[in-house]
Amino acid sequence: MIPQVGELYQLPETHLEAPMRLSQMPFKTLRETPAGVDFPGYAFLLRGRFLEERPGRGRWWLPWGAEVLRRLEDLARQGLVALGGVEVLPRGERAWSAPWQGLAALAAAEIRSYRQLPTLLFTLAAGGQDLPAPRRGLFGGPPAFGAWAFAALRTAEGRDRFLAGLREEWERLLTRLGLHGRWVEAAGGMANGGGAAWLLAWAHPAGEREVVECQACGYAAERAAAVPGWPEAPDEPLEPVQPVATPGATTIADLAAFLHLPPSRTLKAVFYTVEGRVLCLVLRGDRTVDEAKVARLLGGQVPRPSAEEELAQVGAVAGYASPVGLRGVTVWADPSAMRARNLVAGANREGFHLLHVNPGRDFQPDRVVDFARVEEGDPCPHCGEALRLVQAAELARVEALERVGSPYLDEEGKEAQWAAGAGHLNLEAILGAMAEQHHDAEGLCWPAEVAPADVYLLTLGGPGAEEAEGVADDLYRWLREEGWRAIYDDRPERAGVKFKDADLLGVPVRVTVARRGLEAGGVEVKARWEGDTRLVPRDGLGGYLAEVLRGKPNT
Ligand SMILES: [Zn+2]
């Protein structure tokens, strides 16, 4: 029978409570980890049904995950309001795909006078289509839900001070959540604003970013933003150039083997065509081109490898190419090539190379600029010690936007240009990092202030179950009246199943109402991060919760 509309309004009381009563919860926990999931925190999120993520169904945050995100959202909002931020909410596809751009347009349309500066606009929204990395678990890739901030300040110095404050605020937030991240110099990208950029890196093998760090002096940067500190060129006399027959040696590896030389004694030339002109990149033979660095040097254009006809036009011979003797090309040299001597380079003649080629003597680079991929063990730019490569997740990003800004009138009525900066706090990635950081073998262990609930209340079956259920129903009502967020496990399941789910969900306090405890005058309580249960009298529960939920240390 189809119910009448009027009947739908008269829902029984239990339906109004449904979200936190497990008997009413449509999403059931999973016993097994879904196939292909490598990281325990992510596996617990899927098993605990915080998150639904299957091909064809998209990604959904289910009730527990949505609650954790709401808690994180509140913390992010508090922090931005404390910095003087004003919250707005975007509408429509365009604004949602890249919220910072919408905020920039909003600020530019509004700010006319020095009296409106500084202005900090922020929004809590999904977006991030500008982030190019593929997603691994919860890290990287669009569309991530989070906080987006845009600031307009009178001067670039003011903007830089503000961005430093924003970095501090977000690092403090992470520390509060028990996560240890660090800001590193980033290769830009979110806003492509052409200014300095930093990302908040949280080291973890699931992370989508590569970060290099120096353990001796603390230098750290995203791999595509790192510049190694090459030692000075060796004190070696420059030998005269000499052709050498190298039949069939068309790769660096073949060439090095043929001449019994290490690849670092060869010169590599890589050709791209940019706006119809051939760009020859030269670097030491053992290095590879970092295309992200090249794209940044080209103002965001992705370079296209030159075709064979294009090479022929400038006089380059594939497999035997070098910048020596080319015409009509632009040559960029990496410092790795400039700080080497007497290299083997292509002769631009089939079957021949040149011995003792020296950059600056045998060809003139139009520009010396860093574009080689940084490798593990490369020298630190500050202290020369070996750099280490680590995987890290990007939890936040802050950028100076040199290309953004609009005119305003200063105190004297003269036109000036304001400076802009932007930031993104990726709350979904932070949730993922917390799951990896805060768990044990049984499940998640959320810090109290962002947990999906304060209390996991459950009853046990068997003799006396009816009385226990009555007490638990009362207790559930009381908890809600007192403002505690409770999940009530009122399912007709075995004790083992309920305890397992309580551990899996990671709610900070478990309260068990059972005959044995009631006979002893109370309810059994257990903190998620402790092994033992305790008996707490019914009227002492409020005090216990206040103490435990406020006192939970972050690990
Ligand atoms: Zn160093």
Structure, described:
This protein is of the alpha+beta class. It folds into 3 domains: about 50-215 and about 390-435, BirA Bifunctional Protein, domain 2; about 240-370, YbaK protein (Alpha-Beta Complex), CATH 3.90.960; about 450-550, Anticodon-binding domain (Rossmann fold). About 30% of the residues lie in helices and about 25% in strands. The chain contains 16 helices and 26 strands. Strands 3, 4, 5, 6, 7, 8, 9, 18 and 21 form a 9-stranded mixed sheet that branches. It has a 5-stranded mixed sheet with strand order 13-11-12-14-17. The chain has a 5-stranded mixed sheet with strand order 23-22-24-25-26, sandwiched between helices. The radius of gyration is 31 Å and the shape is elongated. The model is unreliable at about 5-20 and about 130-135 (pLDDT under 50). The chain binds zinc ion. The site of zinc ion (ZN) has 8 residues, from loops.
